[in-house]
Design goal:
Elements: E1 4-11, H1 19-24, E2 29-37, H2 44-68, E3 72-80, H3 83-93, E4 98-101, E5 110-114, H4 121-132, E6 138-145, H5 151-167, E7 175-181, H6 185-193, E8 198-202, H7 208-213, H8 216-224, E9 228-231
Helix pairs in contact: 6-8
Length: 235
């Protein structure tokens, strides 16, 4: 069964998606979501009346490369002030497995997969397999052991994920594991992500700090300038 991925972007004047990402998403069902950001006091209905035709035309232009590549693509448009809430709403309504934060890229040869815990392990690993299909891309499964957790305690989770990928057809030579001990979880992942072409990671539980300062995935995308895919947990 094809995986379903949400690709949100901010309107108007969204950057076009790189051709490589269109190609890499070819085996997935893609939902392109245009969020038209509004000032707090602007009624969404009034903005839709004024800008809907223009916004729809921009979304159609974003979808054109997918249609040309034969990719199964749907489009959504929403006007509002809370982008994060809108993305979550559309992802739930469209039953998406993951969300892509796109970025310009010329090649994806190394992917970092940070593992937080075992709760979403199967979904995350299965999505990596579906995303990469039979492409020979190096994958590093990465974990930060925090607090009382030791490297030896974290390694079984990483080996379980590695064995799952190998069982799904990955060449053992291109699947690595790495674990570090640190009390700076986000900082370690941010630093490691700079060495890779893309990141595929778990959806983290939302908190107030994320809404103020941005999520870890937001920070990775901003710092590395590379595509980030967030695999959603079951809701």
């Amino acid at each position: 069964m094809p995986r379903r991925i949400l690709v949100p972007f901010e309107l108007p004047d969204a950057d076009p998606l790189p051709g490589l990402l269109v190609e890499d998403l070819g085996d997935m069902e893609v939902v392109l979501f245009g969020h038209y950001g509004l000032p707090e006091q602007t009624p969404p209905g009034a903005a839709r009346d004024q800008f809907e035709a223009e916004a729809e035309a921009e979304i159609d232009a974003m979808a054109a490369p997918f249609h040309e590549a034969g990719v199964d693509v749907e489009t959504r448009l929403m006007f509002g002030t809370d982008r994060a809430k809108a993305i979550d709403q559309v992802a739930l309504e469209e039953d998406c497995d993951a969300e892509l934060d796109p970025a310009p890229t010329e090649a994806i040869e190394r992917i970092l997969v940070p593992l937080l815990d075992t709760a979403n392990l199967d979904r995350l690993v299965d999505f990596v397999r579906a995303l990469l299909d039979e492409r020979s891309v190096n994958v590093t499964l990465f974990h930060v052991a925090e607090g009382d957790e030791s490297v030896s305690e974290a390694e079984p989770m990483l080996q379980q994920a590695r064995e799952r990928l190998i069982d799904l057809g990955f060449d053992p030579e291109i699947v690595d594991v790495a674990v570090v001990e640190s009390d700076s979880h986000d900082a370690e992942i941010l630093a490691e992500a700079e060495n890779y072409d893309a990141v595929v990671m778990d959806e983290a539980a939302p908190n107030i700090a994320d809404r103020i300062f941005g999520t870890l995935s937001d920070k990775i995308a901003e710092r590395t300038g590379s595509p980030v895919i967030i695999v959603r947990r079951e809701h």
